[in-house]
UniProtKB/TrEMBL annotation:
It comes from the Eukaryota. This is Uncharacterized protein.
Length: 352
């Protein structure tokens, strides 16, 4: 991962270091069967939506099976992911991202201003994807994101794009179920994703000689709408349980996807559902691979509590904010260590 190993950038502060001895396997994170989506039984779909709503309220996370994503699709992207990251840093750096083009390969990302023990490859769904060029409120400039694809492995792009089409279909189904669970029409949120800023990430967590000091990804909440994650059998994802703040390991389930609501759904639901803190452990014996899909709306989306969920007894808990500006400010800290915490949704909380 690093040619001359210097561990100092990766070391978490004492209170955030992993405690492998106290980890609990999360039998409690709901495992939800989506096969009812194939039926025309409205009662079964309403029941499924209620199950997902319960998981969003209690955990902010759930796993899904019988989701409709072909296993072959997942196996193809898994294969090209392993081949790509198995190359030398020099080869991977041919498609290295930078501040002008944040798509491609990168191995220096920071979370909460501490470097993550991982390498990534990012690509957007919509080409080009249009985003805000600057977090400054008065700056109307936009920028276009384009993907860059490696020459090796030769079927890399094809496998990635095929998988993305399938995971996008699943994400819309999940979004509609979440909408129904809030008592809203199924397609309530769909139009926000018309010019989506979604992207897919290939994660590689090499074996780590200091797993008691470093994290693959430090504690964080996802900023966007939904995250749909494929992880291998190694495991390492931990979720902060809402009931007691304990870090809970998510046990890998074969051919399941792990889903979590992001900050946007927390705001849309007016805090009925919560974007929950999570992190990724590393280990010294096995490398780990995962593939999160970040389902995010158009840059011009104004994020605020949905009108139907706000009333005199339950007033809006957030001021409206622009998604493009919000994510532009968040992205600043991915490239460099900042002296301040990056922007969070609580900065838009209405005062009581």
């Amino acid at each position: 991962m690093v040619e001359v190993f210097d561990s100092s950038a990766f070391i978490q502060s004492i209170e955030h270091r992993p405690k492998p001895t106290s980890t609990v396997e999360a039998e409690g994170i709901p495992l939800i069967d989506l096969s009812a989506l194939n039926s025309s039984d409205t009662g079964a779909i309403a029941s499924l939506a209620a199950e997902i709503g319960d998981a969003c309220a209690k955990w902010g996370f759930f796993q899904v099976i019988n989701h409709g994503v072909p296993l072959e699709c997942r196996e193809k992207i898994d294969s090209v992911q392993r081949k790509f990251f198995g190359q030398s840093v020099e080869e991977k750096s041919r498609v290295r991202r930078d501040e002008l083009n944040p798509m491609g390969y990168y191995d220096g990302e920071h979370t909460k201003n501490v470097r993550d023990w991982k390498e990534v490859f990012d690509f957007v769904v919509e080409v080009p994807t249009i985003i805000a060029a600057s977090p400054e409120p008065g700056n109307k400039e936009l920028t276009m994101l384009h993907n860059q694809w490696p020459e090796f492995p030769p079927n890399f792009r094809e496998a990635c794009e095929e998988y993305t089409r399938e995971i996008e279909k699943l994400s819309y189904k999940l979004l509609e179920l979440i909408s129904l669970s809030l008592g809203l029409p199924a397609n309530k949120f769909n139009n926000f994703f018309k010019d989506q800023t979604s992207f897919l990430r290939l994660n590689y967590y090499p074996r780590c000689p200091i797993p008691h000091l470093a994290l693959g990804v430090g504690r964080h909440k996802d900023a966007g709408g939904l995250t749909v994650l494929s992880q291998d059998d190694v495991g390492g994802l931990e979720v902060k349980r809402k009931s007691d703040g304990e870090w809970i390991r998510v046990k890998p389930t074969p051919d399941a996807y792990i889903v979590n609501v992001g900050d946007i759904i927390q705001v849309w639901s007016n805090d009925k559902y919560e974007s929950v803190e999570h992190r990724v452990m590393v280990n010294s014996e096995r490398e780990r691979f995962s593939i999160p899909f970040f389902f995010n709306p158009a840059h011009y989306t104004v994020v605020e509590p949905v009108a139907e969920l706000v009333n005199e007894q339950n007033p809006a808990k957030y001021k409206a904010f622009n998604w493009g500006k919000f994510v532009s400010a968040r992205n600043l800290s991915n490239f460099k260590k900042l002296q301040v915490e990056n922007i969070q949704i609580y900065h838009f909380k209405e005062s009581d």
